[in-house]
Structures are given as C-alpha cells and as structure tokens.
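Weekly structure sync, notes
Attendees: PL (lead), two postdocs, one rotation student
Agenda item 3: pending single-chain targets
PL asked that the sequence for the first pending target be pasted directly into the notes so everyone works from the same version. It is reproduced below exactly as submitted, 169 residues in total.
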Amino acid sequence: MSCALCSAEGATRFFAVTGGPEEAGVQICATCQTQIEGSLEPDHWRCLASSMWSQEPAVQVLAKRTLERLADLDWARDLADQLWLDDETRAWADNQVLGSGHVDSNGAPLSAGDNVVLIKDLPVKGAGFTAKRGTAVRGISLVQDNPEHIEGRVEGQRIVILTKFVKKK
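Predicted structure, written out during the meeting:
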C-alpha cells in the first residue's frame, strides 16, 4: 500500500483526521506520521504538490493543515494559495483553530482537564530533568493569554509546555 500523502510504498497506518466526520482518516507511512506529530522536515512535504489534489477530503484537510504549518516557506504558501476546497471540507480543515485556540501538534482542540502525551524529549528549564517523549500529562490547564502554552504536572513539577510538543490522548 502507498502513503496517501507522500506516495511512499510500504507499510502504512491509519491516521485520524480530527474535526470532521467520525472515524475520518488516511493511510500514511511512519515518516509522515512522525513528522505530523513532531517537527516537519520541509523537503519531505514537497509531495503535497500532488497529494493536495486527492479526491479524498481527509487527504485534502491534512494537506491544508500541513501547508499551514509550513507557511513560512514560499513554496508552501504558493501551494496553499492554489489549494481549492469545497465549503464543507474547508470548514473541516479550519475547524481545529476554533474554540480556545489551544490545539495539539495534530490540530486537535485542547480543553482544560484533557490528557496529553509528549511527542519529543523536552529539557525542563530550572528543574534539572528532561521530560521524556511518551510521558502522559494528565489534567492539563490552559494558559489563557497564550494559546501555544499549556500547564501540566510532570515528575511532580508543574511546568509550562508548548502545545506543538503534545498530542491529545
């Protein structure tokens, strides 16, 4: 099977595309999933020039959200400008930025009390330890004046965490 985003042949896995129809998702490779859940390697995502034209709405939504994360690159802005989505698909793609403004690395909305998982090792300044990838943070609080920050308890310490480094459980 091939990846719906980069067309790589080989093993794929189901990746849920949130904010739309129940159980909507796409089959993607491990490379695409790892990058979507963490940091994007811009050159890998040039593949969106083809996949954004997929007839599958979930692929279109994921392409739009990924291009938005790469908006500081000229080529990604150009592709985003070319992308046409019907009204329903555009609403789905934009659905993740509504609400409190706090969203995880996949664009899923975060609420106070949610549980999240760290998607990369994070050195905790002033506490002398590193919060490891895969660590569960239960019952988060939202930092009201900054939608990129949440608070949670890791190893007994209350810390501020950037939302781009967490995935909603």
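Discussion points:
- The chain has five helices and ten strands.
- The helical segments are 30-36, 48-51, 57-69, 74-82, 87-94.
Action: rotation student to compare against the earlier draft before next sync.
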